[in-house]
Amino acid sequence: MNHDTYDNSYIAGILNSVKTIAIVGASPNDVRPSYFVLKYLLAKGFSVVPINPGHAGKQILGQTVYASLADLPLPVDMVDIFRASSAVPGIVDQVLKLDPLPKVVWMQLGVRHDEAAARAEAAGIKVVMNRCPKIEYGKLSGEIGWTGVNSGVLSSKKPLMRQGFQSFGVRQK
């Protein structure tokens, strides 16, 4: 797969199919991007599990923090990686040990590791690199257009409503 660009339908398909997301590198610091993404995804009705060994056993936004993916008490549909690219191979190793395997490994803005992505894809896991699910959700749902940002997505269709505060669903092509 070409990870330099993604079709909107690929991203929309992922965001419409996942329900439970583990955020590796989640921070309790309310000025960190991982905190904003966790808060946003919770508001959109996703179940989000923070992963951060330094805060294991504590809570972020009411969600219990786990030390590693191996400690997860439930299966997850997506693993969102908020760590440096050099940490991705080890995280993908942990992902590949999960049973059942998640549907998606998502690497945040600035995070890319092609070899680790290829290993995940070989196991049947979809991969997104150098993208943010918060931004992609906002773009594909039309929310980002509320602030005057050109999302490149036009539609005359009425938005789908999802659970959560002002939560428009992602449009499927």
Description:
It is a single chain. It is built from five helices and seven strands. The protein has 173 residues and is α/β, with parallel strands linked by helices. It has a five-stranded parallel beta sheet with strand order 2-1-5-6-7, sandwiched between helices. α1 crosses α5. The two termini are 19 Å apart. It holds the Pfam family CoA_binding_2. InterPro entries: CoA-bd, NAD(P)-bd_dom_sf. It comes from Mesorhizobium humile. This is CoA-binding protein.
| Apparent shape | globular
How many DSSP-defined strands? Answer: 7
* Major sheet details: 5 strands, parallel
What's the pLDDT, averaged over the residues?
Answer: 89
Question: Can you give me a brief rundown of this structure?
Answer:
This protein is of the alpha/beta class and 173 residues long. It has helices at residues 8-17, 33-43, 88-96, 114-122, 133-141, and strands at 20-24, 47-51, 59-60, 63-64, 78-81, 104-107, 126-128. The protein has a five-stranded parallel β-sheet with strand order 2-1-5-6-7, with helices on both faces.
Describe this protein with a few key phrases:
173 residues; alpha/beta; two-stranded antiparallel ribbon; 14% strand; globular; CoA-binding protein; NAD(P)-bd_dom_sf; CoA-bd
